[in-house]
Amino acid sequence: KKRIAVMTSGGDSPGMCAVVRAVVRAGIYYDCEVYGCYEGYSGLVQGGSLLKKLDWEDVRGWLSLGGTLIGTARCMEFKERWGRLKAAKNMIVEGIDALVVCGGDGSLTGADLFRSEWPSLLEELVATGEISTEQRAKYQYLTIVGLVGSIDNDMALTDSTIGAYSSLERICEMVDYIDSTAASHSRAFVVEVMGRHCGWLALMAGISCGADHIFIPERPHKAGSWRDELKRVCSRHREKGRRKTTVIVAEGALDDELNPITSNQVKDCLVEIGLDTRITTLGHVQRGGTAVAFDRMLATLQGVDAVRAVLENTPETPSPMIGILDGKIVRKPLMEAVKLTKSVSSSIAAKKFDEAMAQRDSTFKESYANFLDISEHDDGSQ
Ligand code: F6P
């Protein structure tokens, strides 16, 4: 019987529990045993009670839950070779030869590195007498399958990461709350949303909530003129009769000289045009809470496909990442997706913003372009 370990790693996202549930149940359906690896990579490094067999009933009720019930952690030990050596030994002791990791690009890169090092780790374990040559022969290959759990929607080669739509929903709900008090007092609100390197949440929240203006890292405003532009747009909307002003700022927003655009700077501009302005930083409410239907569906379909990918994997197959493109669940080479994602960040760092947008994916670019066209004619009436 194949033994699969499933772990959640990096920042949690709604839908991670649904992933674990799907992997456990699909694993049982396909006659495998599934182990929960608790606390991310620490579970592999420490082994023992952090590697626990999960049965069908153990994941009952997990479909809609937020966070991750098997825990997540940033594990420093796994970044060191000695930590990975311990992890390899623990896996062999438990008889685990496949790993399904749900996390962001850092966690998935760690998994792929582990796989590439696997033969040499086993070599070292045999040399020190910690495993036998029979065990080395039996566990010759390590299978890794990645699923992307991230609220930021910041991975290339997939249209959506698990958790992004739950977070977007939460942001929209919060902005709706803010809108009613804003309109009552005729106030302006600067709403800061998460997205360290990626503006998807800010952009989509801005579109979905009819924001007056949006600041994201990938499409930076000009350093010398964004303040005037912001004031002009918001004043125009007010002149047209809008009683509230909403500006969404991604936490990683930049101008075209790579200076951060902060909520306080945006607030100052709005105050200068006479608006009574407040800042709301949404923080971790964006990450917690139940998963929306889309994330439950995505987590379940991808979790099932992850088990199939484990069973179909050969030593020659590059580690797959399960994604979704044009509504279809797809497998893409994990490291290709990570590389492309990183080149978006480095394009931004090199001020090649158009390149960053083009690389991210075409749907993102098109929706932004459409939004710009609309906002040219926008009278601020939502
Ligand atoms: O998962 C990514 C993210 O949500 C970012 O958008 C945000 O900057 C970060 O996590 C916050 O992380 P932490 O919880 O470690 O402060």
Automatic annotation (TrEMBL):
<comment type="similarity">
    <text>Belongs to the phosphofructokinase type A (PFKA) family. ATP-dependent PFK group I subfamily. Eukaryotic two domain clade 'E' sub-subfamily.</text>
</comment>
<feature type="binding site">
    <location>
        <position position="278"/>
    </location>
    <ligand>
        <name>substrate</name>
    </ligand>
</feature>
<feature type="binding site">
    <location>
        <position position="11"/>
    </location>
    <ligand>
        <name>ATP</name>
    </ligand>
</feature>
<feature type="domain" description="Phosphofructokinase">
    <location>
        <begin position="3"/>
        <end position="309"/>
    </location>
</feature>
<feature type="binding site" description="in other chain">
    <location>
        <begin position="194"/>
        <end position="196"/>
    </location>
    <ligand>
        <name>substrate</name>
    </ligand>
</feature>
<comment type="subunit">
    <text>Homotetramer.</text>
</comment>
<feature type="region of interest" description="N-terminal catalytic PFK domain 1">
    <location>
        <begin position="1"/>
        <end position="376"/>
    </location>
</feature>
<feature type="binding site">
    <location>
        <begin position="104"/>
        <end position="107"/>
    </location>
    <ligand>
        <name>ATP</name>
    </ligand>
</feature>
<feature type="binding site" description="in other chain">
    <location>
        <position position="251"/>
    </location>
    <ligand>
        <name>substrate</name>
    </ligand>
</feature>
<feature type="binding site" description="in other chain">
    <location>
        <begin position="284"/>
        <end position="287"/>
    </location>
    <ligand>
        <name>substrate</name>
    </ligand>
</feature>
<protein>
    <recommendedName>
        <fullName>ATP-dependent 6-phosphofructokinase</fullName>
    </recommendedName>
</protein>
<feature type="active site" description="Proton acceptor">
    <location>
        <position position="152"/>
    </location>
</feature>
<feature type="binding site">
    <location>
        <position position="105"/>
    </location>
    <ligand>
        <name>Mg(2+)</name>
    </ligand>
</feature>
<feature type="binding site">
    <location>
        <position position="187"/>
    </location>
    <ligand>
        <name>substrate</name>
    </ligand>
</feature>
<feature type="binding site">
    <location>
        <begin position="74"/>
        <end position="75"/>
    </location>
    <ligand>
        <name>ATP</name>
    </ligand>
</feature>
<comment type="similarity">
    <text>Belongs to the phosphofructokinase type A (PFKA) family. ATP-dependent PFK group I subfamily. Eukaryotic two domain clade "E" sub-subfamily.</text>
</comment>
<feature type="binding site" description="in other chain">
    <location>
        <begin position="150"/>
        <end position="152"/>
    </location>
    <ligand>
        <name>substrate</name>
    </ligand>
</feature>
<comment type="function">
    <text>Catalyzes the phosphorylation of D-fructose 6-phosphate to fructose 1,6-bisphosphate by ATP, the first committing step of glycolysis.</text>
</comment>
